[in-house]
Amino acid sequence: MSIFIKNVELKSNIILAPMAGFSDIAFRNMCLKYGAGLVCTEMVSSKALHYKNKKTEDLLFTLEDEIPKAVQIFGHEPEIMAEACKNPLLDKFDIIDINMGCPARKITSNGDGSALLKNIDLAREIISSCVKATEKPITVKFRIGYDENHLCAVEFAKMCEEAGASAITVHGRTTKQGYSGKSDFEIIKQVKQAVKIPVFANGDCKSREDYLEILKFTGVDGVMVGRASLGCPEVFAKMLGKTSFEVNKLEQILYHYETMLQFYSERYVVLYMRSHMACYLSGEYKNTDALLRILKLTSYKEIKEIILGLFDKV
User: Fold this and answer.
1) What sign does the dihedral 112-227-225-258 (CA atoms) show?
2) Domain housing 51
3) Looking at residue 151, what DSSP letter applies?
4) pLDDT per residue over 3-17, tens digit each?
5) In this predicted structure, what is the pLDDT of residue 312?
6) 314 has a pLDDT exceeding 60
7) Same domain flag for 36 and 183
8) Alpha-carbon distances of 313 from 249, 299, 309, rounded to whole Å
9) How far apart are the C-alpha atoms of 57 and 126, rounded to whole Å?
10) 152 is catalytic
């Protein structure tokens, strides 16, 4: 069954979460090739776009075959958020997602991210302003509430729909929980029953069994996968029940480095990729010694030699 967000058709109903420090151009493309229905940049500051911040603009690189793709923006000023939606740098994206779920203190302390769960009127104004500013679908990602005493997911979801959002993603934890505890799928189920726009469930989806159970229990249109994909972009194929695909971890790692090197300096890529390498060299491919050596290097040539040597032994 095809899934549409407004006029954008997704390749599947499992989408890649926007993850700060991880949702880069190379990783997004690998996830798409393994079956992700939609990929998204890490969150981008609307205010930084306003001031033409170079580091922020560098987060918006894409490849021609990265389809469909979304960009996630955050902020708490309706006029600045609307301006961001009109920014030419966002023209190449199919969907614009608004972050109203980030629990990080440096984000919420400014009134951004999940702090907006405590100000539904301002959240409504932001969504409405963005919808009016562009023809692109506007989607919203949020949490079930700020804390267990202020659960507002159903009310917030209805507001998003009324304000013009084309789809929503609900993370089944509160802001105070961060990423601890378990997702509350009962609340996500209530959200799905309360609105007509597509609903995606986020949190605790790590396997095909999780994916199928979440769909069955909540009735949502799809799921958003984040941490389970790190070091394992093939997780989308596994969740979709695909069997005719190959996993070559060496090729994944080299593609990741070398695609990033097409857009960024060697020093930036080597430092940035350390977090990804900690994920790649875990689980089945765990090698603490190789990882520790890689973390000390600033030369891709030297890192590549370690990687080639490591996988020649696997």
Assistant:
1) positive
2) 3-239
3) B
4) 999 999 999 999 999
5) 82
6) no
7) yes
8) 13, 22, 7
9) 22
10) no
Q: So what's the pLDDT on residue 313?
A: 62
Query: Cα separation of 277 and 88, whole Å?
Result: 33
pTM (2 d.p.)? 0.96
Supply the CATH number for residue 182's domain: 3.20.20.70
Among 31, 102, 152, 160, which one carries the catalytic annotation?
A: 102
Instruction: Examine the domain organization and report whether 205 and 77 are in the same domain.
Output: yes
* 293/163 same-domain check: no
- In tens, the pLDDT along 127-178 reads 999 999 999 999 999 999 999 999 999 999 999 999 999 999 999 999 999 9
Same domain, 57 and 139: yes
pLDDT at 2: 82
Co-location of 73 and 199 in the same domain = yes
pLDDT of 199 strictly over 80: yes
Q: Is 244 part of a structural domain of the chain?
A: no
Length of the chain: 314
| 220 and 143 in a common domain | yes
Mean pLDDT of 217-237: 98
Q: Which whole-number Å values give the CA distances from 228 to 66, 202, 274, 278, in the listed order?
A: 21, 11, 18, 14
Q: Are residues 261 and 216 in the same domain?
A: no
Question: What is the rounded distance in angstroms from the CA atom of residue 94 to the CA atom of residue 154?
Answer: 27
Pairing of strands 8-10, 3-5: antiparallel
The answer to whether residue 171 is domain-embedded is yes
Cα separation, 288 vs 265, whole angstroms: 26
Residues 75 and 157 in one domain: yes
